Amino acid sequence: MTYRAQVEDIRFVFDNVAGFGQLRDTEKYAETGEDLTDAVLEGMGKLCEEVIYPTQRDGDLNPAVLENGVVRTSPGFKEAFAAIAEGGWVAVSGPEEYGGMGLPLALTTAFNEMMTSSNMALGLCPLLTQGQCEALEHHASDEIKALYLPKLISGEWTGTMNLTEPQAGSDVGALKSKAVPNGDGTYAITGQKIFITWGDHDFGGNVCHLVLARLPDGVAGTKGISLFMVPKYIPDADGNPGVANDLKVVSLEHKMGIHGSPTAVMQFDGAKGWLVGEPHKGMAAMFTMMNNARLGVGAQGVGAAEGAYQKALEYAKERQQFGPIVNHADVRRMLLSMRADTFAARSIVMSCAVALDMAAATGAENWKARAALLTPIAKAFATDVGIDVAEQGVQVHGGMGFIEETGAAQFSRDVRITAIYEGTNGIQAMDLVGRKMMDGGEAANELIDEIEAHAETARAAMPELAEPVWQACESLREAVEWLVSQTDMNTRFAGSVPFTRAFARVLGGHCHLKAAMAEGGEGARSKLARFYIRRLLPEHESLLVYAMAGADDLYSFSLDEMGA
Ligand SMILES: Cc1cc2nc3c(=O)[nH]c(=O)nc-3n(C[C@H](O)[C@H](O)[C@H](O)COP(=O)(O)OP(=O)(O)OC[C@H]3O[C@@H](n4cnc5c(N)ncnc54)[C@H](O)[C@@H]3O)c2cc1C
């Protein structure tokens, strides 16, 4: 099996669905011409196909281990990461003044997708480093930026995010880690963090931890949290890794998947840290990193789906049972569902990336609102698609899907975490119907207006595709109206997950319709649009019924009535 990076499909989505071309009209991204975009996508694709993909299975079979306090990574990972760093791919969107390429986040998102198809466990290391660069760029002092950004962007050093503690998961505000001023502008950080991705490694350089902790005068909850840079080695006067800081990896988790990614329990014992941003404003700074990472995790869902699809298709062409199984109706149904949903998820993730880029390039409120609306949808839907598609990939393989050697199961195990970390998909859905609807549904309705307007223009050429998309918009609009009229937040939350999926289903229909229109109604993309709109889009109807069912029946059960 080989992996083929979807350069052509990503380029098609950029040009015909996600509106990447608008970026070239902004001053910030005026230089991102077609030639440059093509060269970057092809360079990323070649690296992932030739260098990263061959390490995928080794990472699964030989997990990272902790030996005498030192993390040893899986075979081939050190060399593969060095190739990523040498190519300048760690932070292609990093600011140019610190050595980055200053390219749109949409291109970093393409890289994160390809990295995941080829080796998700390894891809997490640059993904977290990218998020850290963005948080530092926006919130750190000039001294911290000058010291850390060039080294993180070049891949010489790597970055982590330290939020989670045993008692503080989704409820980050419950964290207990403490930061005490040392009197010299630095702070002593003490506490234990769990589940820290790439908390340590043997790649050399430095591991830079962004840690959330509470200052002595920090109030309880999220409002009293501050953010600190806590490096593994304290940089010396020349900015090189100096003495070891007072922190260590206590243990590594044994996980269901992404075995090659060291997930660490970290202990900070008065470790030296530097404040990033203002005291008590740590959550705002960390949100920059988390939003970036949420989009990155959405891209992981797409990447896993693409990898699983390619593997399943290849197997289905070769496997003979009453002839090649690819010719059986049910196998075709599975494969085409996988392909149609992967395209929808890729389109939504890329549209979100372009909205974030447009917001950064123009500062316009409408782009900020669009990006904020799309982020939870992109994260939740694309990761659900990754999980569904990988699961169907196992089914296409029959018994061989359950046997580890084919690698189909690895995609399924690896991608499962994407619905959990960076805010579970339940938390994303609550964000959509809660914070993102505080505007009375304005941003949602603006997007629905756009989809309807596009469906209207498409109606003459393709009525059988445009009409169902238009109708779906009307149903979605009614659900938005119902949601914003609910003052009891639990009533909204009870239906938030089906609502988020319904919204994504409709957006997926819009993206497929755009693709069919761009193709002129004939060809593989138009056939796939027809498949999606006829078979997958109708799911939004039952999802919206579910979304508006309220919370009363959920709470009508006593705990005894819920079973033993
Ligand atoms: C492999 C891996 C890597 C990770 N990497 C990192 C990392 O690098 N840095 C880091 O800081 N953390 C990391 N995490 C932690 C991850 O972000 C958390 O696991 C996640 O945020 C969920 O927290 P939790 O596990 O405590 O689950 P809980 O918060 O206990 O949630 C359990 C369930 O309850 C639901 N729930 C919780 N609160 C609510 C609510 N208010 N309303 C409705 N439902 C709710 C959740 O959706 C979930 O279904 C990682 C975790 C894993 C497993």
From TrEMBL:
Domain Acyl-CoA oxidase/dehydrogenase middle: 161-269
Matching SUPFAM superfamilies: Acyl-CoA dehydrogenase C-terminal domain-like, Acyl-CoA dehydrogenase NM domain-like
Superkingdom in the source lineage: Bacteria
Domain Acyl-CoA dehydrogenase/oxidase C-terminal: 281-432
Entry keyword set: FAD, Flavoprotein, Oxidoreductase
Domain Acyl-CoA dehydrogenase/oxidase N-terminal: 78-156
Cofactor: FAD
Domain Acetyl-CoA dehydrogenase-like C-terminal: 447-556
Protein family according to the UniProt entry: Belongs to the acyl-CoA dehydrogenase family.
Protein's name in the database: Acyl-CoA dehydrogenase
